[in-house]
């Protein structure tokens, strides 16, 4: 963590981007912006390519699942490495791996030899490397800024996670107009290369509390025990898992939704993802300026409810413009919920365990999304994309209403979690 904290921003603009005052945080943020833009661009490009090759939404779901499946098993090991070695080194390794994978995918597409199993394998490896990237980033961010700026830093970081659903497909969309789809994958590879350049400039060297000789299993078990014994962390983990599985697992639905419901084809998927990203970007920038705990708690409840409602809006949309508007509402509510809930998780986590706890939380986020994305592809094929969206949205609205009946989460919604503020730099 920086030794000297600049004075708090006096203008509203400085208040909302205060974390950018810290050089290493800005470099990590720019690296995440590039890497996440590439990831979401690849999600769209691979989905469209698979649908063209197979004509099956289920196949799109399988490839999307392959990209997210590593988050079932990789995060605890990524968290262990982020606590054992310097988090900067883990970041550099993840960007390098994804750049190499992007080169391989680009060559296959340009050669015209790409097959479904190629996409499944490369998607799996891409997802594994991204898991290391996200886990190390979440563990490193609190080391780059003072504790008082943590909410602002986490929210801005979530702008790169969710806002790049707009930037990534938007940057790569013009390349879809070229004759060979290989240009799209080349563009995604270049974005990973740019991200690597940024993280190479980071000077901060930080790691967690893994002792030399401590086994991987013992290190991971230490984090699991901490989460289980902390009632607040345990309830937040459960709520995040349900949110990600029921409202954020729609990537496998979008290609068939675009084709069959709004008749927009492959370009429509890019527009929908850009709508999600634009809403996410606006939401997290607003949340970045929020400082009071009671406001965070109330917004967590509101954003959760609207995450479910927005899926119903997308299912009801009769055309592309209204679908994009619904997607923007979806992106804003989802990213707002995730920014607030994850800032709470980060501030509850002592620095000695933060990498491993971040890794466990990645299972919550990506592991559940992977499983439900796979199921959603089959559900969209069997019952239609509208039914899939109705089902997911209705279930999560019910989850939020029921969660208000629990004492722990009701207290969070009404008053926030002020006790967490003191845990950020343990």
Short description:
This protein is an all-alpha fold and 426 residues long. It has helices spanning 12-16, 23-54, 57-68, 74-84, 87-111, 116-144, 150-162, 164-172, 182-200, 216-229, 231-247, 254-260, 265-287, 293-316, 320-348, 354-383, 385-403, 407-415.
- Rg, alpha carbons: 20 Å
- pLDDT under 50 segments (min length 5)? 3-9, 419-426
Termini, distance in Å? 11 Å
Q: What's the CATH class, please?
A: Mainly Alpha
Helix proportion of residues, in percent? Answer: over 70%
Total strand count, please?
A: 0
**H and E string:** HHHHHHHHHHHHHHHHHH
CATH H-level superfamily title? MFS general substrate transporter like domains
Task: Let me know the largest β-sheet.
Answer: none
Number of domains: 1
> Which CATH architecture is right?
Up-down Bundle
Mean pLDDT figure: 82
Tell me the strand percentage band: under 5%
Outline: globular
Secondary structure elements and pairings:
Blueprint: H1 12-16, H2 23-54, H3 57-68, H4 74-84, H5 87-111, H6 116-144, H7 150-162, H8 164-172, H9 182-200, H10 216-229, H11 231-247, H12 254-260, H13 265-287, H14 293-316, H15 320-348, H16 354-383, H17 385-403, H18 407-415
Helix pairs in contact: 2-3, 2-6, 2-7, 2-8, 2-9, 2-13, 3-6, 3-16, 4-6, 4-16, 5-6, 5-9, 6-16, 7-13, 7-15, 8-13, 10-16, 11-15, 11-16, 11-17, 12-13, 13-15, 14-15, 14-17, 14-18, 16-17
